Amino acid sequence: MSDANASNAARDRLIVGLDVSTRTEAETIVETLGDDVSWYKIGYQLAYGGGLPLVTDLANSGKRVFLDLKLLDIPNTVAKGVDSALALGASMLTIHAYPHAMQAAVDAAKGTDLTLLGVTVLTSLDDADLTTAGYAHGVSDLVRLRAGQARDIGMGGIVSAAHEAAAMRALIGPEMAIVTPGIRPAGAPAGDQKRVSTPADALGAGASHLVVARPIVAAADPHEAATAILDEMAAALASRA
């Protein structure tokens, strides 16, 4: 892969998490990053701060939006949530990987380009956390179970930590997306994440998209931070070609 192709591929795989509390803050970040970033994530923090209309504005400007709302409810409510995400113009939407919720989402999104992602186990959790929550499975077993269910139901991909990406790629095949949060450049603090990885390691393990929030949006120079991560991703992709 040429350097130019690797750079373009990196831009297609980096999702910057707009983990800020106001639309004004989010728009400042988008303006700062400019054409170097094509994907953005909008989650609870910004959505509850009035950021949902930004999904449509970003989509209309040529950006793609990963709407990270982790839907989980009765099937009818999940289906209506998918309908609303489609109306906003989202390109990706997360569903907690419970079979009934994933099936409702797949049925609602049928015939559209919306990529539905099953959230396997949050990257802030480890085996002890799952035990405390009453789960019989540890992280690895639960991720594998939910990823297999997502594949069989027809989801577009899964969300999992990079540490599980290689095993999940073997399980779900080459076509489904594997979106990995908890990405930290070498030397960056993990924060409240417990299963973290560098950009290069995540791509090498088979991740299709990397979600990076705090290392970029909380950096003194967000553009410089994003560029450094894109360069690391491009180098990793070029070395695999």
What does the model show?
The protein has eleven helices and eight strands. It has about 240 residues and is of the alpha/beta class. Helix 4 links the parallel strand 3 and strand 4 (about 90-95). It is globular, with a radius of gyration of 17 Å.
- Characterize the main sheet: 8 strands, parallel, barrel
Low-confidence stretches: none
Mean pLDDT: 92
Question: What is the chain-wise order of helices and strands?
Answer: HEHEHEHEHEHHEHEHEHH
Biggest sheet strand line-up: 1-2-3-4-5-6-7-8
The class by helix and strand makeup works out as alpha/beta
Distance between the termini: 5 Å
Shape category: globular
- The tally of strands reads 8
The helix count comes to 11
Bin the helical content.
40-55%
User: How big is the Rg?
Assistant: 17 Å
β content, as a range? 15-25%
